[in-house]
Write a structure and sequence with these properties.
This protein is α+β, with helices and mostly antiparallel strands and about 190 residues long. Helix content is about 15%, strand content about 40%. The chain has 2 domains: about 1-35, Ubiquitin Ligase Nedd4, Chain: W, CATH 2.20.70.10; about 40-190, Nucleoside Triphosphate Pyrophosphohydrolase (Alpha-Beta Complex), CATH 3.90.79.10.
Length: about 190
């Protein structure tokens, strides 16, 4: 950030009075500009023993498979955002149920909230951000073609919990060895 969105004044980086972190501060009007993590919300859309996945038509990770998810908008709940993203990416209508996984990604300042959801019907097709959408049974999941660690971990847990018949909310952190590394470690908060 270079200029204040309130008055157009030049920004400096410093620690505001009463704070403990560096922030962008307007030298003209004094407004402190906070940059906070982005919230990503989405669904695990289920039909009987299958999960709906979307093949990405956009970067990052174009051509790989993912759960329908995206950034929350202002003035919507996490559940509303999850249903909206599913409609936008897969033209699929879902009944949003339980919050299933929460993943913190500190390196890229994102928090993911993924909800177990039921497809309301089989009338779905790719949205503008998807090349294709399809239902997969566990043994059909394209594990090597999944776009993001959050999706891989969520699906792994989902199928594991489905076997036991007990779905619990999981909270974890995903850490990469470096910003561009595909190698990651998942650390779960113990219940």
């Amino acid at each position: 950030m270079k200029f204040c969105s309130e008055c157009g004044g030049k920004l400096t980086v410093g620690i505001p009075h009463g704070d403990n972190r560096e922030r962008h501060i307007c030298g003209h009007c004094g407004v402190v500009h906070y940059q906070n993590p982005k919230m990503v919300t989405g669904t695990i859309p289920v039909w009987e023993d299958q999960v709906l996945l979307c093949r990405r038509a956009i970067e990052p990770r174009r051509g790989l498979w993912t759960l329908p998810a995206g950034f929350m908008e202002n003035n919507e709940s996490a559940q509303e955002g999850a249903a909206r993203e599913t409609l936008e990416e897969a033209n699929a209508r879902v009944q949003v149920e339980q919050l299933y996984t929460t993943f913190n990604l500190p390196l890229i300042s994102q928090v993911y909230l993924l909800f177990r959801s039921r497809l309301q019907d089989l009338d779905f097709h790719p949205g503008s951000e998807s090349l294709e959408v399809a239902l997969f049974r566990e043994e059909q999941i394209p594990w090597e073609e999944l776009a993001f660690p959050v999706v891989r971990e969520t699906l792994r847990l989902f199928f594991q919990d489905r076997q036991s018949g007990c779905f619990v909310h999981r909270v974890g952190d995903i850490y990469w060895k470096s910003r561009h590394s595909g190698e990651y470690e998942t650390v779960f908060l113990q219940d």
